[in-house]
Amino acid sequence: MKKLRVPEPISGGVFLSYKCTSHCKHCMYACSPEWKADWISIKDLEEVLTQLAAKINKRYPPGFKRIGINYGLHFTGGEPFLNFELLLRAVKMACELKIPATFVETNCFWCINDEVVREKLVQLRDAGLHGILVSVNPFILEHVPFEKMERAARIGREVFGENALIYQEFFYHQFKRLNFEGPLSFEGYLQKAGVESLDYVELIPMGRATYELGYLFRKYHATEFFGKSCREELTRPWHVHVDNYCNYITGYCAGISLGDARNLDSICREGVDLDGHPIIEAIVTDLKALYELAVKEFGYRELSEGYISKCHLCVDIREHLVRQTNRFKELQPREFYVHLR
């Protein structure tokens, strides 16, 4: 039996839901307001955190609290502050399990005034949260005014000190310098800030970005990506994710589940049976195999305009397969493919 060896995670994130207040053009996970509010259940949350704690805790010295994008554990989505009580419960669980370097990511939609922000952040800190990551970029700016981001960063530093991270700092200082007020379309941003500002965007060409921002990239024929695989991404132990349906997701590869994270011990010990997961087998071997499977068995047709990355080819084929068949159990959650475009 062919197996994909899956290493134990050293850091990761837990999706409380895919539901978000924003429909960001660059979102790797295709989050949006259109998703159902399928919040992770308390039972599943407890099981997932217990499994992650057993793996992550042994990678850090006792009491480690310094947060970083690839350290410890973060709560994310979607937008976790859409369900503050669930977020608070999750933080308390993580604290009881002594999970290191815990933080929450947010788009700051909820930061309506100083009192609200301070009250919520103090509650989270007192419950055991170690920090916060404030998302600041031109894509969130389309939906959330900069003044809310600035408020979250300022009060976040009051509450968490150096454990209040701004991602990305370049845009925070640029938005402040240009005195942006209110939401601003991406096109409006480019007019005011200049196209050269895109040099500073950490824009990973996968997920929704492949469709909504594809015009920013050079495109290639599918054959350009033959001979390439995604084995390295799918076996990467850092910054893994578990979604609210308990799918174990590695390498930012949304829509591909390596299994049920409530059984993480089994996934890491036994690996993934490739005979039972033909899509995973194809993409860890050669994307040509995925392409040929889709063309021969399901009538896939290459995009005439081409692809911006191997991730674009992969996700476009997977979207087609989900529309055609329920055969591939690793293509989860199926709703991801509905909300890509």
Provide structural commentary.
The protein has 341 residues and is of the alpha/beta class. The protein contains 13 helices and 9 strands. It has helices at residues 42-56, 84-96, 114-127, 146-160, 169-177, 186-193, 209-212, 231-234, 264-270, 278-285, 287-298, 310-324, 334-338, and strands at residues 3-4, 12-15, 73-76, 102-106, 131-135, 164-167, 240-242, 248-249, 272-273. The strands form 2 sheets. It has a 7-stranded mixed beta sheet with strand order 6-5-4-3-2-7-8. Strands 1-9 form a two-stranded antiparallel sheet. Helix 1 (42-56) runs parallel beside helix 2, helix 2 (84-96) packs parallel to helix 3 and helix 11 packs parallel to helix 12 (310-324). It is globular. The two termini are 37 Å apart. 45% of the residues are buried. The mean pLDDT is 97.
**Main sheet specs:** 7 strands, mixed
The whole-number mean of residue pLDDT values reads 97
- In the sheet with the most strands, the strands line up as 6-5-4-3-2-7-8
Measured as a percent range, the helix fraction is 25-40%
- Assign the structural class, choosing from mainly alpha, mainly beta, alpha/beta, alpha+beta, or little secondary structure: alpha/beta
The SSE order reads: EEHEHEHEHEHHHHEEHEHHHH
Strand coverage percent: 5-15%
Question: How many individual helices?
Answer: 13
Note the overall shape.
globular
**Alpha carbon gap, first and last residue:** 37 Å
Question: Which properties best describe this structure?
Answer:
single chain; globular; alpha/beta; 7-stranded mixed sheet; 38% helix; 9 strands; 341 residues; two-stranded antiparallel ribbon
